[in-house]
Amino acid sequence: MAIATWNISPQSLKPVDVIDYDYRAALEWAATDRLSFGSHLVFTFGPLGFLASPVLFFAVPAFFGFAFLTALKTCTGCVIYRSLRSSAPAVAALLFSYLVMALISPGFAVEFLVPLGFVWAVKIVDRPGGRRLGEELVMAGGFTAVAGLIKVSLGPPVLLVFVVAWALRPDRAVRQLGGYIGGLAVAFAAVWLATGNSLLSVFTWLRLEAAFISGYSAMASEMPGRLYSYWLAGVAIVTVVVIAGLRGFQRGGLPHAAGWILMTLVVTEVLFRESFVRHDQHDVLFLAATPLLFIAVAGPAQRRVWRVQPALLLTVAVCESAVVGVAPSLVARPQTAAHLWLSDGKTIVLPSDRRTLEAEGRSGLQGIYRLPSSWLTEMRGQRVAAAPRGQPMAWTYPQLRWQPMPTIQEYTAYTSSLDNLDASFFGSQDAPPWVLQQSFGLDGRNPAWDSPAAELALRCNYRVVSTDSPFLTLLHRTHDMCGRAQPLADVHAKLGRAVTIPAPAAGMALVTTIHTSPSLAGLLAGAVFKGGTYSVIVNNTTRYRFVTGTGSSAHLLNWPVDSGTTMAVPAVHSLTVVSNDPWASKSSVDLRLSEIPVGR
To answer: In what order do the strands lie in the sheet with 462-466?
Structure first.
């Protein structure tokens, strides 16, 4: 069934200059060079993140990614089919499983680890006691570790669901929980060390990953494009929670009902957040995964009663995904999907096919990057970073020694701790001698304010030596050309009110911090799902989306033209902060303006 619903084409394995391929190149390179997460890299994906989306930057990670996605889709199909067989004919169960599998697009296949973990946890609650239960909890711990090492945000909900499942068992024993934790710890340590990481960097990595998880919604949230999806998701969540509560109450009264509801809310919240924070086809993920939750929480005797709900969700998911152009274009063509799977495997495994696709990708990227041969000769064998993106460049030009910034891409440094990590990287003694920089904006954001502290550190510690390609070639200075920030003024203003920005003195850069005051309702909405978004209107003309998580960093307003750099930044004369949060209309914003001496 996994082969009959395969939806990755050989051409999608070819390296190209696309934003999603940018971080995939970094993850595969990190796996190949065994770069340490926590001390070298930190990202929303972990050391096993290369399994989520294979691209032929490197053969071994691409092969393991291909094998992992095949196994994941196979397991998902088997779980759905076996769960339905107790209440549906074989043909109906097979058809339902096939349709769900067809909706699992490569972009969010790994998110299905959460509902799969939920189904497993339900089985643990229902399973008779005995020695086999302890062994299963050990394996569940390993599953949790792998899920978190692929994508960090998947680990905590899977962990919580399994712990609640253990607590709901009448014969629960501490040794069983110890087996689960032990399985998690052993699997985590084994994979962590095998991928070239140091145990000393685990806590640093976890702390920074917490910043990634906590700041994601404020950075990425978009207003809905299809409101009916929200209403359908809300009805689905309420229904599956009610079913879970009823089943728990039947088994053990209110304590069990609370446990079942908690497990279900954890999983539905994660799926809802992953699917509806942004509106880039991820809402299909929720509609495809929720039928699996219905099947899991409804006991065998009740599945006939509730099967209309998953069928309805599945119908809507197929229709919606057909509209937005996701996987179901292959629903009626399993032979085409099978051919794609065989072609992908052949391309990855056979050296001749792999080299042909790699050559096409490298040639195409070289035509885009167009780095002059003279500078490639100058940088040969030396450490080079790309900012704010451009990680495939090191693969495109093998003579370069790749040294990525810690967050891989500047736009992902959406909290102050992550921003300061990148800034320290560019300002340290061990900074790469060369940086290739290209102006890049995402979501209508100001490129100079993506990782604002890191952008300032780049200007202070690097100088432009070439503009002969789409990338500026920057060379590290022998000294930091920026002095200590000198406070200039504190400004308190209401949202929507323009603030006049004074002109800096000669030889001075002007920066500001921007502290917003979200409403209580906005904070609660952001904690559960997503709050309102903020924007900054510059000079009463240009509107930029503002990432509140980096508000305490120094945002560049003006840069002296005689500072020995050609990295231009438009002068800011007025600044207005606005928000679409309906409860924040009376809120305020605080600016702290400072000047920084800039030498040569």
So the answer is: 401-402, 383-387, 434-437, 472-476, 462-466
